[in-house]
Amino acid sequence: MTFSALDASILWPALVAGLLVTATHVPLGMQVLARGIVFIDLAIAQIAGCGVILADRMGFEAEGIAVQVAAVSAALGGALLLTWTERVWPQVQEAVIGVTFVLGATGGILLLASNPHGAEHLRDLLVGQILWSQPARLAWTAAIYAVILALWLGRGERLGRVGFYVLFALAVTASVQLVGLYLVFATLIVPPLATLAMTRRRLAASWGIGAVGYALGLVISTITDLPTGPVIVWMLVVLGLVWHLAIGRRSLSPALPQGGGRI
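RESULT FIELD:
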């Protein structure tokens, strides 16, 4: 299969969406790994998804402001709940996040049980519709991400636990509607995990892994006609693994014996 002008017109907005998500989620993902709360994005994304589904069931327009308000409100509520549980039960926070995720996931299924298009809505929530990214949505999403990124890079730890969870909820709410839950999780975790051993330029390397992963995934999915979201997830993981192995080998090389010494 060869590329056409139509392919390019679809891929460019999708790539922009991927770069926007990467730019915002990589720094937040580093904090998620540092806090040991890896599955928080899945939990908050599922809660935001429940807000979207509930608003849809109430008859609000899918792209309307009411749906966005419902999603953000649900995500912020979940974020504040997890803030409280981290303060009260820090030793079991990861377990609490897991339970929250399961409740959000099954809650969405229950809300969609009577919807004839329920399976399609659930698939869109999980896999996303990155190929159908609209310039108007990308513009307001970019504005939200710019504020989140400026606050996080400018203030970071000074925002405190509540500030982190609120920023995280806003970022995930926007992202899950843009690229789907699976890509949100992969973007948040895979690049920071791949660069965990780095002490210098880790953020730049993580951004690079995310950007190249999205670009390769979009190209390969177009050539092979495979679902775009899953292909990008696999590309992110493959690139992350290659990078991690390369960094690990390089960090070990100075310790290897020189001049034919014994092993």
